[in-house]
Amino acid sequence: MEMIKLPHGVWSYDPNQPLGPEGGFGIVYVGNSLEIGEIAVKKIKVGLEDAAHRELRFADILTKSNMEYVIPFYDAGEDADTGNYYVVMARAEHSLEYEITSGRKFSEAEAIEVLLQIVKGLLEVPDIAHRDLKPGNVLFHQGKWKVADFGIAKVIEESTSVQTLKDCLSPQYAAPEQWEYLHPTHAVDIYALGCIGYALLTGSPPFVGTTDELKQQHLHKEPPVLKIANAQLRSLLGMMLRKNLETRPSLTRVKHLLEEMQNSESQSTSGGLSLLSNAAALVLDQSAKEEALRLQERSEQLRREKIAEEATKILIDITDYLLEKITIYAPNARPSQGYSTKPGQFYYPDRIITLGTAKLSINFSRFAKIPKDAFQNSKWDVYVGAIIEVKQDSLRPYEWGANLWYTDLGKKNDLRWWEVTYMTVFSKSPPCEPFAVEETSLADLAASHIIGNIQLGAKPKLVDDEAVDEFCDRWATLLAKAARGELQHPSRLPID
Q1: What's the CA gap between 96 and 139, in Å, rounded?
Q2: What integer best gives the mean pLDDT of the chain?
Q3: Which of 341, 414, 446, 474 is the most buried (most CB within 10 A)?
Q4: pLDDT value at residue 198
Q5: pLDDT band at residue 284 under the 50/70/90 scheme
Q6: From 131-140, 263-272, 480-489, the region with the lowest mean pLDDT
């Protein structure tokens, strides 16, 4: 046994007898006290000083409290001899995790009672969000289930370092906002309590898998439908597992609903009310699916917007390189640019360079946003686009244009910048060709197997990376022809 001296007394513990696996901030050992008898001693990890001090401060608060559903704390602080930090608490009989992993399935009435006792424990410390609520932190002590380990809790109104705590969440019980490293509130405890409810009734939390799989499920997937008789309990767990933290019920409301369920068990429920309860559960299941779908769609939208923004920056660099090359070889060329923007959005600079009566322009704003399903017929996945054109404003006016698409050409995930030109098929008096289209629907049909008036004017040509110089040379040539009044309809279409 090792002796430790803390602010409120002298304690001993056996470093060879851990009480369970190591946690986020430390490990708990079997301990002993002359006055109390058997105790549990938690040794705080070295290297987590900021978080450790936070735990010790909370432990100090709890040592001064006499609570019914929170595991008793006896002492906390720095050992006078070793400088290590410890928390001394009551030794429980076993954890809720032990019960679940041992194969015990709780009845609906038992699950309600366990959840209610946990909620009462959380309400006994109303200013602290636990933030790591899980079966391993719910202990059976003196005939009651009690909340333990406020090791990564925080006072709700206090600013804390989320980065300090981000690696200490428990993946199977972590709320969506914890995966995004938002500051915790009691809503994370409500979500974890919902996960615990699933574990009590089914033997496992609602989501299982690797850490990455769990992250995606907590963020985007609705929990599996619980096949239990108590529709009220099923509805409550669904409410607690809502992805949006603002729509989850409060701790006080959860306590009230659980107490109502306990009371209703001893009373007969009419057929109409029973049907209504089941109907409410079905509505909740549907709303959970819809919420998960909305969040998944929003996440996909944000992902696409990020890729589109990065792709636009790549194209800006390419077109700036093109304009730089033109001004080097044609010093009298006059470059200019304008910005097409919306508040809070990325800047889309339209590039223009004029040489005599000829003008080359790149418009970034027309296709700054492209919906995911805009190219359904061709199966191209297009994130963003631009239009590049050369105009010949002389005795023989002519325009030559193309669309620039950031796409995989339907080849799945091989995203590149492509130059795509278009032509007409059935027009008796063809316009200037090849040209750029102004509507994604026309570009989609032209790239598909559907026969229409507008088709591809050439095979798509790469624009980025190893193809940059070829792209610049192609459009520098077109600008030179336009400046000399030589731009005209190609001898054949498609060009290649």
Answers
A1: 6
A2: 85
A3: 446
A4: 96
A5: low
A6: 263-272
pLDDT bracket for residue 152 (50, 70, 90): very low
SS3 483: helix
9 vs 293: which has the higher pLDDT: 9
Instruction: Dump the DSSP string for 292-328.
Output: HHHHHHHHHHHHHHHHHHHHHHHHHHHHHHHHHHHHH
Spatial neighbors of 492 by CB under 8 A, at least 6 apart, are: none
CATH superfamily, region 94-267: Transferase(Phosphotransferase) domain 1 (1.10.510.10)
Q: Are strands 416-420 and 461-462 parallel, antiparallel or unpaired?
A: antiparallel
Q: Per residue in 229-250, pLDDT tens?
A: 898 899 899 989 998 888 899 9
Helix (H, G, I), strand (E, B) or coil at 342: coil
Q: For helices 186-202 and 108-123, what crossing angle results, to 10°?
A: 160
Beta bridge partners of residue 334, listed in sequence order? 354
Instruction: Count CB-CB contacts under 10 A for residue 28.
Output: 23
Q: Is the pTM of this model over 0.85?
A: no
Tokens standing for 436?
A: 């750029």
CATH number of the domain at 2-90, please? 3.30.200.20
Q: State residue 61's pLDDT score.
A: 63
The confidence score (pLDDT) of residue 48 equals: 45
Tokens 């400088």 found at = 83
Whole-angstrom CA distances from 41 to 74, 208, 259 are 10, 31, 34
Token digits for 49? 């000083």
Distance CA 336, CA 354 (A): 8
Q: Where are the domains of the chain?
A: 2-90, 94-267, 305-483
